[in-house]
Amino acid sequence: MAETVIRFGIIGCAEIARKISRAIILAPNAQLSAVASRSVEKAAAFAKANNFPPDAKIYGSYESLLDDPDIDAVYVPLPTSLHVKWACLVAQKKKHILLEKPVGLNVGEFDKILDACEANGVQIMDGTMWMHNPRTKKMREFLADKERFGELRTIHSTFTFAGDEDFLKNDIRVKPDLDGLGALGDAGWYPIRAILWAADYELPKTIIALRGPILNEAGVILACGASLHWEDGKVATLHCSFLTHLTMFVTAIGTKGTLHVDDFIVPFNEKEAPYTTSSKSWFNELVTGWEPLPSQNMVFVDLPQEACMVREFARLVGNIKVNGAKPDQTWPTRSRKTQLILDAVKTSIERGFEPVEIAN
Description:
Belongs to the Gfo/Idh/MocA family. The protein has 360 residues and is an alpha/beta fold. It has 11 helices and 18 strands.
């Protein structure tokens, strides 16, 4: 039986929307049906540059796209400061929402979006693409293996990239009125999610921002870090920055094994996804090497991870559309927990690096 094809519209022509446009085209159960910008000319140029189907509709306002009865779902790549307004409007139009991260400037904003989604029976998912890479499932299987990995005790994760002079002056991610969370919202979202993922989405008890965050003249975070603490003794650290070389890793350490991946956000090659595991390793007799050696693992993928994300989102939407299912709460719950931790890091920085307790 053929899958239900979900018709997507995009509001806004952000750079990331180029990647998601391609993903919608590649996903077998999705159709790229419309794009809207604040001018018809910009929307038309975006559609042409990104190989939209010839019958895709072009709109000169976001409202026009939202009023289109032929659109099932809307991808929202707008600046974070606009999320609460436009995501709520999308939901009120009974259209499902694929929302760029961070999902809001704070969890209160995201709760307004969730209320609108619940009131209108629509699915929401954030745009954390690596969650949908087949590698992520394989790595989860290792973490869940008590014999090979044991009990999780420590997690470390980092995402940094060096923005050039133009980026640091003009990008929306350094503007307090557009993406006021800066590097914490844009880059920090990923290690926060990675830590939650490794901890099977168990929220930490306490967050403490690390000293030495770097802010620009407008007060937007350009680099920061934090430590996370659980009641059972688990600990984690995260670091994010717009000022240092491209680096993205997550390391999870258990009582019997270790998982490490160097390219967890964007794989070095979109068709291959490597990761390293070690289990019950120790030194050899002369302490000149390891026994056994860590295992190098490779997962080969048929679809880029962003297309896997679109496929899964469209599957959930199709289940609602055809079978009358209720929206799946897995993804919005994960989004909210990620935002809660992000908020706590920001609060700890603002309070002079005091511990901040997480409250659901």
